[in-house]
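Would you mind writing out a protein's amino acid sequence and the numbers that encode its backbone to help me picture the idea?
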Amino acid sequence: VSNGDFETWVDGLPNNWKSASTAGNATLSQSTDVHSGNYSVCVAGASSNKRLAYKEMTLKAGTYTMKFYAKAATETGASVRPGYTPVDADNKAGSYVYGDYTNDITTSEWVEVTHEFTLEADTRLSLVIMNAKNPGGNVLIDDFTLETTDGGILDGGSTENPDQGEEPGDTPEPGVPTTSDLWT
């Protein structure tokens, strides 16, 4: 995914982290408390679950691993839950498919969160990170990646630096994932 490091911001929002559907319902702000780089995204907490969502994209059937770092932004603490929601052609979000909660996130350290999921068919979706209503505090997110060795992005992937990647004529070593095999 593009801008998983939350370094690029447009009109007060992290570039590519705005869904056309209702998948993303959180209030977002830029933070300089970071896991790496200059910025992370602060996902405001509330008395209801709030979601940070990546723009809609179509992924090939395959197994994917989401990974990111989370840190509570308030003494209330935080709890996050990664997942995705299918999104139809009219940008209507379907049922959310979540991994496990990561609880007891504090302000003292960044915690790695990992979630693996498998798509049985090509799927248009929005990746989401839920900021759970319990405890409902603000949470920082940084260094988000999505990796696969047997899937890939069909549509809606990177919009930044489209000319980066493999050069024509590059021949990868057998068994080594290429940029078209491994999306980060």
The two ends are 6 Å apart (CA to CA).
